[in-house]
Amino acid sequence: MPLVAGVDSSTQSCKIVIRDAETGRLVRQGRAAHPDGTEVDPAAWWSALQQAIDSAGGLDDVAALSVGGQQHGMVCLDEAGDVVRPALLWNDTRSAQAAADLTAELGAEKWADAVGLVPVASFTITKLRWLAEHEPANADRVAAVCLPHDWLTWKLSGSTSIRDLVTDRSDASGTGYFDPRTNSYRRDLLTLAFGRDLLLPRVAAPSEAIAGNGSLVFGPGGGDNAAAGFGVDAGDDAVVSLGTSGTVFARSTQMAIDPTGIVAGFADMSGAFLPLVCTLNAARVLDAAARMLGVDLPTLSELALQAEPGAQGLTLVPYLEGERTPNLPDATGAIHGLTLASATRENLARAAVEGMLLGQAAGLDALAAQGCSVSGVRIVGGAAQSAAVRRIAPTVFGVPVEVPPPGEYVADGAARQAAWVLAGGAQAPSWRAGLADVDRYEAPLTPGLRERYVQASQRYLDR
User: Fold this and answer.
1) How far apart, in whole angstroms, are the C-alpha atoms of residue 333 and residue 335?
2) Is 402 helix (H, G, I), strand (E, B) or coil?
3) What is the helix (H) or strand (E) element at residue 190, kind and residue range?
4) Pick from 253, 206, 266: which is nearest to 419 by CA?
């Protein structure tokens, strides 16, 4: 049975999984750390990838490989294929003013209609404007711009020509100069941002085999969020990812067009679309509540499950690091409904879990407003391992919740794509039968909970 490999080159580390192409069974895996910072020499990613491959036992018996990677990063190359300057990552905010300027120049509605996005500092197009304005000498040297996963795939292929760069729809859709409806670049927007046109990676079809290296076949890869959705094999369920930040996304047949910028109109890895909402506050809300109560996370979970649904009216608005959805960068968290009766450790623990989940529920509502089906939710990420999160989630979301086992879902999505490329079929293989069963949770929606949260959070918007 052939083996396939999937890579997740994330902000913090590089992970690789090697799986059976037919069943998805995990054979072996490896990882290596990335350097800290919001700008990184891509050579560090290449070194980490080699270490991760070595720690996973090499690729000699692997038939196909795909790379998933952190979205939006700006990798600039000169005509010879050399890196012009360290890559600016998605979390580098120095292009915030460039984002505001680009939005003002075209208007939020026109941006959303053109590419499904309203410029923010994360997106590649804003970083290109920053480069043109602040480092003109470097800007003059740039012949091509690509994304982290594009660059790693190109390096793996052994090519030294920038004309061999390849990407996919999902990652291209996060640049700000790609229309996923037509699968074509908006070079007019690229020129608006940078001042001139550049060589851009060819956009491969979702299951297209691209230039390999020896007997190893490469898939086009993808952006991390799309790869995670593909790896968890969510189908038409929405996915809520509860890491440091929270992301909420769902497969759709149409690109999201949201001038508010709340919903990003990304593409997925299957040929469809992936409307996505990002919140700043997720797992660390639970960390903060545990510190306040002087307990560890398992004890926080136990306390939360001892309280009644709704925490006797106690409501936590979890804007502990400001918030992106809604756009309230200077907001702080708040507790509402505190009374003598509700002032218990159990209620505070429950309110923390409910508040974190209610923040993600706002994202689900935004997806529903874009026409997405939200009849079921899959929860992944570190906070999904909390028993309280698992059991309370359906009472907040109002739909059944499934929690797959912990895993490297970005790398898994890349590996599943590699299996699709290897099989050459019209549809991606389903690995659900060969993977561990998901846990399913159902419970009644807590009456009045969403309404109380909306009223409490609305106070920030009314200021």
Assistant:
1) 7
2) strand
3) helix 187-194
4) 206
Give the CA distances from residue 292 to residues 78, 285, 338, in Å, rounded to whole numbers and listed in that order: 52, 11, 16
* 95 contacts 130 by C-beta, under 8 angstroms: yes
How many beta carbons lie within 10 A of that of residue 105, not counting itself?
A: 13
Model confidence at 39, pLDDT cuts 50, 70, 90, reads very high
Please give the single-letter amino acid code of residue 407. G
Cα 444 from chain centre: 29
What angle separates helix 96-106 from helix 124-134, to the nearest 10 degrees? 110
> Beta strands 264-267 and 246-249: pairing type?
unpaired
- The residue from 224, 237, 258, 268 that is catalytic is 224
**Three-state secondary structure readout of 426-459:** CCCCCCHHHCCCCEEECCCCCCCHHHHHHHHHHH
Q: Tell whether the model's pLDDT for residue 389 goes beyond 80.
A: yes
Q: Choose among 175, 151, 12: nearest CA to 82.
A: 151
DSSP assignments along 238-289, one per residue: EEEEESSSEEEE--BSS----TTSSSEEEE-SSSSEEEEEEES-SHHHHHHH
Length of the chain: 463
At residue 116, the 3 state secondary structure works out as coil
Do residues 281 and 265 touch, judged by C-beta distance below 8 A? Answer: no
Active site residue 224: yes
Q: What DSSP character marks residue 345?
A: H
The verdict on pTM exceeding 0.85 is: yes
